[in-house]
Structure formats: structure tokens, C-alpha cells
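Blinded run. Sample ID left blank on purpose so nobody reads anything into the name before looking at the predicted structure. Input follows.
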Amino acid sequence: MLTISGLSKAFGEKTLFDEVNLQINEGDRIAIVGPNGAGKTTLFSILLGEIEPDHGQVNLQRNRTLGYLPQESAEVPDESVLELAVNVHPEIPGLRKFLSEHQEDDSSAVSHDDGTAYARYEELGGHTLEVRAKKILMGLGFKESDFNRSLQTLSGGWIMRTHLARLLVMEPDLLMLDEPTNHLDLHSVLWFQNYLMNYTGAVLFISHDRAFLNRLAQWTVELRRGHLTRFRGNYDDYARLKDEALEQQRAAYKNQQREIERLTKFVERFRSKASKATQAQSKLKQLEKIERIEAPEEEKANLKFQFPQPKRSGQKVIRLENIHHSYGDLQVYQGVDFSADRGKRIVLVGPNGAGKSTLLKLLADVMPVQKGIRELGHEVKGGYFSQQRIDVLNPERTLIEEALDTEQRITEQHARTVLGSFLFRGDDVFKKVKVLSGGEKSRLALIKLLLNPPNLLLMDEPTTHLDMSGIDALISALNQFSGTLIFISHDVHFIRSIAEHVVHVEHGKLRSYHGNYDYYLSKRAEEESRLNGATESKGKAQVVSRGATAVTKTISSKERRRIEAEERNKRSAKLRKYKSKVDAIEKEITSLEEKQTTLTVELEQPTTYQNGPRIVEINQELKMISDLLESRSSEWEVAQQELESHQS
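Blinded prediction complete.
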């Protein structure tokens, strides 16, 4: 579908890409990973034609479409949420407006450009677009009441969600996403990743959300030191395979260095001796012919640093009792209770709009209690982190000055270490706060909070704008934090690493789960299963009971055993048949995937591009294999469902 051949790009002395190659096929799910500044977003800009490469080519098959979601700064047209979501073709806005103004006319008689407006609207997808857009918008957290809201009344995060919905409605052949989960809550992230798993096109994405990467990626491509390296599998597979490859490179490099040292010593020792001069010259030529193995780039160990620990609080940290809260006519809470003890690590989860952020603001006293009691425990000092916290920064200070402005006495070296772990490195620490982006200001506010932590820490989406090293640094800091933590996050890896207690918020009710996130998921699954199956099971039990009674009245126990044995034999035969079918399809899929991998590896070799006909041949074979894989995968799903239905 899309081929990158011999791509090179440099800015000044910094080389981002050096003769890199990549093939993206139909249905691929490819994650691009690498350190900040490696060039991931620049690569996207080149693929989109926004930046010209220094060398190389990007070839997109004819009639294929690209869709792109940037990390930040999408346009804000004067449209409603639904209008933007359905405007996937230049003609759509005019047609919708025209038809809206002529609703009472006979649609078949309405003329618009080359044909009727109604016919053209239907040809472009028309009303099916609207149905799909509403479904996608609701999956991303919008309510029906939001559909007609003007985009200009929404926050930046919700505007990005609307643009994401529009992309999904467009259904491009290749979907390119740059940090798509940054503006989503946990519920929307889970919906989004499930949607992408069933997406018909290919997906190329950049993300620092480890759980999202593990769930979605079939291939992981690392961009580092100007090279693209492709690994089969998700992020965890990539990390394991990379470690193995690094160990092999390390061993090969050490062996080669020993050989180079041995040959060099021989040359230096004997080159001046006439009797050994010929041998020395031979060893020198041998040295010159050695193709040097590049020294492995050793990964930096995860930064771990000791944050100042807060003053110890009483056992009972905070209590909300009989809380009522509303926004105008919208009642969010009516008589809700909540409490937290010292040292608890509590995550608030639930669908968008359920009231999680409202609850956090009530706990932080950022939002006053309208009715009820908010009570802090003995020696409790609360601290609240949200995007609004950037207002406390002094724009005229440098980063290092702002970091050092804390009640806790810390050294400049310690402050620089912490700043570095959150991506402020080198001379960055001397920048003025006023020149920072919104994301950079948010990270600086987070650093200030952690350098002088309260003993009750309340955090709303703290991992936004952090890369993986920054998230790991934050996890490390919070795991050594001795106070009480209550937080909201859409990052499942972060939640699993921190939370020991889950509170589900929905319909103004709080439900506590005294365990980690996986415990919460299992309990929720059990509850939903019981809820969905209770009535149905009761009805089935009555029918089965009546049927069984009727059978026992008409046949003997011996005859019943014979019939049951025959039924068991029939079921076993069917199971073997379906199992054999599943195994056969799985074997064929494995063979096709192995062939696909072999061809992909060959296509990524620079020497392949010296043979034009072979490139065409490989691409044709990959297209055929991709089509077969899609077909066989569908057959496998049907066969597997049949097998499972006969096993139950």
C-alpha cells in the first residue's frame, strides 16, 4: 500500500533518517516507537507530503487514501460537533445545508450541480454517514446533547476527539495517528482500541501508552539513531526481541574488538622486523577488510530519584459525607459518601461525564461543597494537579529557578536530575517559562508538585505529555511516595503500576473495589455476567426442568443412558471435525505469515531496491498474501466460534 525507499532527512548536523526503508501493507497495525526527538513526527510529516526528504521516495498506491490525526492543534471551524464529524467530503457541507433549507421540497426534484442534491448526498454516504458518526462520537465520550454544540465552545481535548471521530467516519486506507489517546479518558481509550482492532484499513501510530501499544500493534518499528528497525509483535515483544538483539550485538562487538586488538598488537609488534614484515602486512590488510560492527547503544537505566517525603498524616485522611452537587439542572451527586485512609492509592474510573473530575475537585476543595460535609484528617495537607495548575508558574523565571522555588531545600543538581527525567535536558533548564508549550508547562507544574509533595496528592491525568521514560520516572516517584494518592488516568499501564484500590463512578454512585485494576476488571465482568444472565437462566431452568420430567415419564433409565451415549459420541465427532478445521486454517495462516515476514525482510534490504522487477514482484506477492490472510482470518473466526459453541 505504502512504500518508503531509501529515505534520508537531516536538519543541520542532526540526521533523523539515513537510507531507511519501510513497507506498509493492507490491514497492518504498526507502532512507531523511539526516544523523543528521534524524528517520529517528522516521519509522519514526510509521509503526508508536508516536508520533503533529502533523498529517497514515498510511494502510495494509486487511489489509496491517508487520514492523519496530529498530536495537537487541530483547526476549529465554525461548525457543530456532528457537522465536522460527517464532513468527510468537500461537497457534504453544501449538500447538507441545501437539503436542510429545502426539507419540504420533493427531494427527487431538487437540482444541485450535476444531479439532484438528494441523490448526490446519498451517493457520498449521506444518512449512513450521520448514523456512523453518531455511533463513533458516543464511543469517544460525546452525548447526544453535544452533537449540535459549536466546536468553538469546546476545550482543546474535545476538539481533538471530534477530529478523531471525523477520521474514523472517513475510513481512510491508512490511518496515521500521533499520540491519539492523549485526549481520551479510560473508557474512551478502551472503546477506541477495540474499534481499531476491527478497522478495515491499515493503522500507523505513535503512542507512549504501553497498554494501548500492547493491545493494538502487530509490528513495532523503532526509530533510533537514524535507522528504522522492524520487530514482529507488540511493545512487550519488541522490548524482549530488542534485548536479545542487543545482547547478540554486544557479544559480537566484544569478540570483534578482541580480534581487532589481537591483529593490531601483532602489526605493531612485528611490522618493523624484516622476518615478520610480510605477516604483519597481511594482518594489516586483514584489519582493513574487517567490516566494523557498530558499538551497541546501551540503554540508560530508568532514572530513580528520592523525592522529599511529606509529613505523616493521621489515619483518616479525608471524608465526604452526604455530598450533593449539581451544575444548574444537571444533578451529578445526590447524597454520596467517600473516605480515604493514610497511604491508600486509589484510582477513579468510569465513563466520561460520570463525575470523576468533579469528585476529585471536591476532594481538593477546588470546587466548594454545595451540600454535605468535607472533612480533612489530622495534619493533612492536600495538593491538586490538573491543567489549571500551570497558572501558578511565574512566566519570567527560568525552569531551574521555578523548580528550586519550593519549601523543601534541594540542590540544583537534584533539581536538574528531576527536570531531565521529565524531558527538560541540557540548556533547556535556562529557558523562560513563558516560552514553554502547554504540555511543557504541565510537566513543569508536575515537577514542582513532586519536589514538595503534600501528604494527600490528588492528580487528574498526570501522564499526559510524558514519554515512556517520564511515565516510568513518575511511577517510580509515586511508588516511593508515603502519603495518600487519589488519581484519574487513561493509561492502563500507569493504573496497573500504581493503584491498589479502585472506585467506579457512574450515575452519581460510587462503588469501591478493594483490589488492583485487574481485580476490578474481573469483578465487573462477574457482575455484568450475573446481571445479564440471571433472568435468562431462570427461564431456561424452568423449561429444562419441565422437559426433563416429561422424558423420564416416557423412557426407561437404560434407554436414556443409551441415547445420552449416542449424543456424546455425536458431539465428540463434531468437536473433532471443527477442531480439525480450526487447526488446518491456523496452519495455513502461520505459513502465510511466515512467507509475509520473509518477503517483508527482503523488501527492507537496500540491495532489493537495485532490482526494480523484484520489488514489483514482492509487492504483488505481499498483496496476495494480505488478501489471503484476511480471508483465512475470517474463516478462522467463524470456525472458532462454531468450535466454541459445540464445546459449551
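Unblinding after everyone has recorded impressions. Residues 105-115, 541-555 have pLDDT under 50 and may be disordered.
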